[in-house]
Amino acid sequence: MNPTTKANAPHDRRAATLVMACVGVFVAYLPVTTVSASLPAIQRALGASTSELAWVSDAFVLPMAALILTAGVFGEVHGRKKVYQAGLALSGIGALVALCAQNVQVVWAGQALAGLGAAALMPTTLALISHAVPDPRERGRFIGLWATALTAALALGPVIAGTVLNHVDWRWIYLLPVPASLLASACGAKLLTDSRAPGVRRLDWPGQITAALTITALVYGIIEGGAASFSDVKVMVALSTAAVGAVAFVLVERSSADPMLDLTLFGSPAFTATTLIAMISFLGLIGFFFALSLYFGLVQQLSTLDAAWRLLMVTMVPLVLGAPVGRLVHRVSPRLLIPGGLLVATVALLTLTDIGVHTSFGSLAWRLALLGLGMAFVITPMTATAVSSVPFHQAGMAAAGNNAFRQVGAALGPAVLGALLTTRAVDALPGHLTDAGLSGRTVQHVTTLAEQGGIGAVGGADLGADTPRVLGALSEAFLDGLHLCLVVAAVLTLLAAAVGAVLLRRPTHTAPPAIVTPRPGAAGESPTGTPAQGHDDAGSLAGSHSGG
């Protein structure tokens, strides 16, 4: 090999790593909006209730929220390439299971497997880039491209789903991840170099188990409580389990020699602020998207592709503005950027509270674009502030923790707002049925149907000559629930802005690495306690771009 070839080899390896990381995160995140846009079609085909539809979304998000921290540590201990390959395998298998589904329970299983794959791919793809590109400044450009791939998956998901559903059965929305996972796995086996974190790091199984138990019990309790009653025994047991699990998690992490999430991070007001903002804002926004996709299908009777163009108005704005906002992070205070963006998002949500059955695309487009504009000024600065607000050696954990809490909010969103939507719509339905001139017997029959099977059961029922009036009343009842969801989402977003305004006052952590005395054996450290090169400084940059 001549000298020129030798010089080009590292650059070729970095380019190959970037391509594989981008493909991995694209495969991981494609189900998020592909499935969200297809929820009305899934509901019609499988006769799923609103609570069952919420589990379709949460079956994917829950494993990601519960395991994303542990997956990152597992890659550091056992090899990032191995975890990357495992993530691709799980994503492909999950898509294949859902592709063969004949009932909603099998869809849940496929979504859960895909969520496990996403939990493995999300931190591992970033870590592979960080290892391949040791120069922090150059690494930022690579991670920016990685973030673009992630955001592109979110933006293209609805369009892919709409195109598929215009021609074939809904199950085929799961086809693309299967060959993509196989191809990426085969290429990754040849092109990627395995790596581990320097220093000693152990898996925190007690913390992992208590975290997964808490998150799952909480989401289950909220979804089932909204579908049935919060006084139901199983709901009360679930919520009590979540409360006990949360206390147990705190106690376990405080006593652990190598915690999954070091609770001393919350000693930083800025880290606490960004973590709360991530969870609260995504609870409101992901819950809103869940309700909005049902509005397009049940109320406006749009095809999935027509709904996709509307959802694209939200996702395209952060995709286009991601790079410019990334440059603003170092020039404008996060105390202005983050609360300011959240206030814009709040205004956008409030402007949507007057949408009706016949609201036009043009009337919706500017409001959805305004919502995307607000979030564009929140997503990137949020994680960048989190990792810059803690000591240097904890930057990687701060980025992972911020991502994990964001996923918790995303899991709670469909659960909370789906429960509110169902409860309000079912309560309002009898009045709208009476206003439509339907008989008392029909009102009672339709109300019972809604209480037992959810509003989706009413939408799919054949009630003969009364069907048009029932569907009209159902649309009005759904809009009552949707308007409540929009108000709640706006209040949550405003609350997140208030948290940012109050807690983002102190300057972020600026102490140089040399004066930090880290705990021996922490993530990203060498055995001597000094920050490991190519790992935690990567965490800071990775976190600043990983908010898509």
From TrEMBL:
Key words, A-Z: Antibiotic resistance, Membrane, Transmembrane, Transmembrane helix, Transport
UniProt xrefs under Pfam families: MFS_1
SUPFAM superfamilies to which the protein is assigned, alphabetical: MFS general substrate transporter
Stored PROSITE patterns: MFS (PS50850)
Major facilitator superfamily (MFS) profile domain segment(s): 17-508
GO cellular component: a single term: plasma membrane
PANTHER family named among the record's database cross-references: MAJOR FACILITATOR SUPERFAMILY MULTIDRUG TRANSPORTER MFSC (PTHR42718:SF9)
Protein name, per record: Membrane protein
Taxonomic source organism: Streptomyces resistomycificus
